[in-house]
Amino acid sequence: MSTFTIFLALIIIVAFLLVVVIMVQNPKGGGLSSSFGGGGGQQLGGVKKTTDFLDKSTWTLATLLLVLILLSNITILDGGTTAESRVIDGQPEVESNVPAPVQSPVQTPAEDNN
């Protein structure tokens, strides 16, 4: 298994976790913590901590996803051939020894009638 495959699997897992964490949050400020809130003035202990945890986990997963993407890009560039062109290096183009395909003459419908 190549290094890029490992990074790709990690990127997929982190992206899935990031989607789950974002979907749990409510854009209007309620989210998971509002379901624990109960009545108007009552709050269970730890509701504020739930919001802080979701906020910190979102930023952590987003940062981890960015780092994994950058590291996978480095492994792609290091693992393959050089991306430089032969024209830039001043090397002549390599001609292939494959013969050109033979083209048959095309007959028009007027020539078929003769």
Automatic annotation (TrEMBL):
Ranges annotated as spanning the membrane: 6-24, 58-77
Main location: membrane
Region (Disordered): 88-114
MF GO annotations: protein-transporting ATPase activity
Family: Belongs to the SecG family.
Function: Involved in protein export. Participates in an early event of protein translocation.
Protein name: Protein-export membrane protein SecG
Source species taxonomy: Bacteria, Pseudomonadati, Bacteroidota, Flavobacteriia, Flavobacteriales
